[in-house]
Structure formats: structure tokens, C-alpha cells
Amino acid sequence: SLSAAISAVKTGSDDEQLLCLDIQENASELKTCLEEGFYPKTVLAIGSERGWSEKERQLFSRENFRFAVMGSRILRTETAAICASFLFQILRGEK
């Protein structure tokens, strides 16, 4: 279940960043979220092309995930994961 998956990756410490890619209009830009400070651990939830259900969004909100968007285009799940990983590495200065 989604709840079990969140529990498996979330430590609850202050040094982790919890992000959920979504197509909501009020989501922050992923680039902005990643530039707002360094976190030793970042958890990035990526859903299907249809987006998250309202129930799933509520669960992420209760678990203190911040909603983020990579732009106006809806990407395939596999493509979104690759793009988000690349953006993460570029912004963190990793090679």
C-alpha cells in the first residue's frame, strides 16, 4: 500500500526532504524545492500519468510531503523519474 511505502522510506527526522511530484496548480516548482537548502536525504514520490487521487494527496499531506511540479507537461512515470533525478544531481552539483 502507499501508506506502507511511505513508512518504509520516511525516517521522520528533520534532515530529510519529502517531496511529491503532482500536477496540482498550487504545487511548487521542483527546482525551487531542491534549491531551498541541503538535505542529506530527499524522498521523491512519483505517481502515474493520471496524477494522485485526492485520498493519496491527503495521505501525503498528513505525512508532511510538499507537492512539487516539474512544469506544465505531463510526463510518463519512467520519464519523470529520470528527469527528476537529473535535476536533483545538477542542482546538488553532483556528477
Overview of the molecule:
The protein is of the alpha/beta class. Helices cover 40% and strands 18% of the residues. It has a 4-stranded parallel sheet. It starts with a helix and ends with a helix. The mean pLDDT is 89.
Secondary-structure topology with pairs:
Elements: H1 2-9, E1 16-21, E2 28-29, H2 30-35, E3 41-45, H3 54-62, E4 66-69, H4 77-91
Parallel strand pairs: 1-3, 1-4, 2-4
Features:
95 residues, alpha/beta, four-stranded parallel sheet, 4 helices, 4 strands, 40% helix
Please summarize what this structure is:
The chain has 95 residues and is of the alpha/beta class. Helix content is 40%, strand content 18%. It has helices at residues 2-9, 30-35, 54-62, 77-91; strands spanning 16-21, 28-29, 41-45, 66-69.
By secondary-structure content and strand pairing, the structural class works out as alpha/beta
CA gyration radius, whole angstroms = 13 Å
Form type: globular
Distance between the termini: 34 Å
Largest beta-sheet details: 4 strands, parallel
Percent strand: 15-25%
- Amount of helix: 40-55%
Instruction: List unreliable stretches of 5+ residues.
Output: none
Mean pLDDT: 89
Number of strands: 4
- Strand order, sheet with most strands: 2-4-1-3
Question: What count of helical segments does DSSP give?
Answer: 4
Q: Determine the oligomeric state from the structure.
A: single chain
The SSE string, one letter per element, is: HEEHEHEH
